[in-house]
Specification:
Layout lengths: L27 H5 L7 E4 L10 E6 L7 E7 L12 H6 L4 E5 L8 H20 L9 E11 L1 H12 L5 E5 L15 E6 L11 H7 L4 E6 L14 H16 L12 H7 L4 E6 L7 E5 L1 E5 L4 E11 L7 E8 L17 E6 L5 E10 L11 E8 L5 E3 L6 E7 L3
Length: about 400
Amino acid sequence: MAAAGLFSAVPAGAFVTVAHPVGPAPSMGVLEADAGPFSTQAFVPNTSPGFGGGTIYFPIDPTEGPLAAIAVSPGYTGTQSSIDWLGPRLASHGFVVITIDTDSLFNFPSSRADQLSAALDLVAAESNDGSSPITNLVDPERRGVIGHSMGGGGALIAAENDPTIDVAIPLAPWNTGTDFSAVDVPVLVVACENDLIAPTAIHSEPMYESITGEKAYLELNDGSHSCANSGNGDRDLLGKYMVSWLKRWLDQDLRYGPYLCGPLHDADLVGPDISDYRDTCAYDLPVLATPSGAVVNEGPFGFQTACVPVVLDRPAEYPVTVDWATLDNSAPGVATAGADYIAAEGTVTIGVGESTGCADITLVGDAIDEPPLLYGEWLLVVFSNPSVNTSIDPSFFGLGLVVILDGD
């Protein structure tokens, strides 16, 4: 069962600070399917400096970008074929993924860590190459690593030693040492209950317990050492958790949090597939943005600016944006566009650590006596389209208000 701990919204190490939502809102059906919302293609790069070769998978015509890059390593004596299901699966959700062959079937985790970093460097170089299929598709600042067995140990070592790594997912990890207390980026450890090669009590569990950043431990019931490899029978469950973890931390897309912690996740814990789950509960509710109001004297001829405030329920952990537009519905007592104010629209942006922003509206003054109705004319502002880490308070239907008092 889940052992929920205190949630730390911002990991201490390398981390992505701006939301990069890619694709439509997630659903259980899409996350558990063999393919996500994007069709994919693949190609073999001409060179593989620092590792033994690879295949790059990428989404066709993603609606947003650039995209995070992920490198995946096989385990000891393994090749790409053992982990190649992850290439198209992850790419179909809006990532650029390279699955690699190591330069030797027999090298150990520390070497695989270097090769994972080298593979990510190649992906970045391909994105900068004007003739590559992934030209300009990759964000070099958002990098994740995945590995199986010794590749999983390599993923943890890469997260420990390479400051450019933002996320790691070790699969049935094996390493001679289990102290990864220096790893403070988000890590999802996938373990296999009946692993005889990397027994969970000797490898996965102490590794997980040592990690200091956001983390989760997913153990597959009755799984052998290869439970997360190509051909396994739990790809629906594994795909859901791996995609959600990568989306949540590489894209800072809070829409995926409920699949990692909360009611949607809790439903998995009563099923037959998970033998153990532990986490720090990497699920944070979106910041709530509440439109508010202001009272302004109209004044004589001329223009003045009125602030329609938007107030967050807590300081923003990541930049928050909300669109706004003035509303003229010609109702009695409602201000008239052109006569009382200048019709406008825009976006409120609230920075990290801040909790208030303004939709600035230009008022038009006049010398006409206007009898008060409900203590003045009402100027309505509609707030909509919040950023992915935000929701709008439904009170008053998302409307902000300026009450214009007649100053004549």
